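re the bet — no i am not wrong, look at it urself. input seq straight from the record:
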Amino acid sequence: MVHHIFKNMVPHTNRKNIEFDLLKRYTTLQSIRHLADGGFDSRYSRPSIDFIIMFQDSKYLFKDWFITKDLLDIDNKESEICSQSNNIQNIKLRKPIPSYKQMIKTDTALFYSDLALAYQNFRYNASLVNKSYNFYEYTSYIQNNGYSEVKCHLHKNNVVAIHTNDYSEGYAMIKAIFKHKSSNGSYYLFIYVDWFEDISRKHIKVNCPIFVLRQDTSRCKIFPLTIMDGVRKTHFVHDCNTGCQDNNHDLEHNQYLNNIFFFKAI
């Protein structure tokens, strides 16, 4: 295995001092492994205090990292995902979420009803025979807007502005990205959202509108990827209180600020 790794590294070395170059790479890999293990090494009876201190300083660097065989953790069945629109192609799903970490309740009548409405949204009347769903952290796809192709990305917890025929434009947070196998055997991609409610208040210091993230069922929560034609991403930040520390927000406090000062440079 070590020989195979080094053999693949050789074409990327300077080819003048291969032994030195490979030694640097090996030392770097071992250091990262040691940090990821918290400074513990089974070859020694006690951990290295220097590595333990370094691990505390670098824990945010390694947060949410994952190792895969390929450069991207792409679902092996991505080719089976059918586009719901001629304007959306090359759909890819990344970073599957294990079922035990999935908080969305999929066995309710409301979930089935919203999913059936989502199918009808792109004129497909499906009988929801299959009750199996696969959830992912994010997805990417190519969107053709008539004169150019744009690569788009959607992540779980992104905030988007959605405009549908049934409702006026509103803000929603993507709580889940999942695929479902329809009755014709094809896989389709959907998003599950929680809606924001404008409470007609502004923050006393930054003068940004305050919204409350609701989990009620008064509006449809599942949409097909075709809804992305009418979606634009927007920037919301959590209205933190004393219960928020670092990047760990107190989600019981469900107020968010619409960052009206945010803009994307062109």
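see?? The chain has four helices and eleven strands. told u. also The chain has two domains: 2-58, 97-137+151-258. so pay up
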